[in-house]
Amino acid sequence: MRKNKLFITLTTVLTLSMAALTACTVAEASTHPDTIAAESELTTEATTTTAGEMDHSSDNRLEDILQRGYIEVATEPYFAPNEFIDPTKTGDDKYVGSDIELANYIADALGVELRLKPMDFTSVLGSITSEKYDMAISALAYTPARAETMNLSKGYYFGSEDPQKAYGILIRKEDADEIKTLEDLSDKIIAAQNGSLQEMFVREQIPAYKQYNAVSSTNDAFLMVQTGRADAMAAALKMAELYLESNPESGLMILPDFYFSVDEDTQGTRIGIPKGEDELTDRINEIIDEVIEQDLYNQWYEEYKEYAKDLGLDF
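The structure assignment produced for this chain is given below.
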C-alpha cells in the first residue's frame, strides 16, 4: 500500500504522512484537521449528497466514469509516504506519494482524467459511504465496519513481511522503565487517530487505560505524546519509524517487543469504493493485479519515502 513523501518540518511530514498505512480505520467518523499551512486549503466535505449528486446517467459508476472522462478520488494528504504535500509545488502537483501514483495509474488504465479531492480523513470515509466520490485512496485498512458500508478492493500494499509486526505503541524514552507491557498502561492516557485501525486496536486489545484520546491526525498523536498530553499512542510502525528517523530529538521510542495482533486474512492497504459498485470494484481489482505483478507499488512507496526525506520535511 502507499502514500506521499517529503520533509520540511516534522509537523509537515507527519502532516503529509500519516491513512491506515494500512493505517486508517474503524470508526467511520473522525476528522483529520492538520497543523501545517496547507491545512487551510482543506475543507471538511459534507457527507450528505443531494438527489442530483446521487443520480447516475447509467446503471453503474464505472460506465459513468468512462462516459464523463474523469474519476474523482478522495484522499487525506497527511500520511507520508502514501500521500502528502510537497510544499515546493502548487496546484494538484503538490499532492504526492505512492497512493497518488496509484491513483494516476488507475486513471491512465481507465483512460480518464484524475481529479483529486483532498480532505480530512473522516470526510474521506464519508464521501464514499455517501457515494459522493468514485473512490478513496488514502492508506485505508480493512475493518469489518468499513466493509459493511463500502466496497473494498484487494490489498495493494502489505508493508511488513510479517503482518503481526506492523502495529505497535510509541512512548517517551523517559518512560521506558515505567511502561514495558500493556498492563503498565492501566493508569496512562492513550492516543490514536480517530476512525483508524489503531483506534480499534486500543479499544479491543489494551485491557485497561486511564483515558483514551481520539485525535484528528496521526501527527497530532505524535505531538500529544511528545508534549506530555498523552503517555502512549498506537501507531503503524513503518510510519512511526519514518517519524523517529526524521525527528531524532522527539524523545519518542517504539515500545520494544510488543505488537498488536492482526487478522492476516484482512491485511493490506485497500481502495474504498461506494457500496454495491461491483463492476467498478472488479475493474479496480484487475488494475491492482497489474500493479502487484509489476511490483509497482512497493517501488513507489520506497521512492516517496526517500522523496519525503530529501524534501527535508521535519515531520
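Interim note for the steering committee: Confidence is low (pLDDT under 50) at residues 1-41, 46-55. The longest helix spans residues 278-293.
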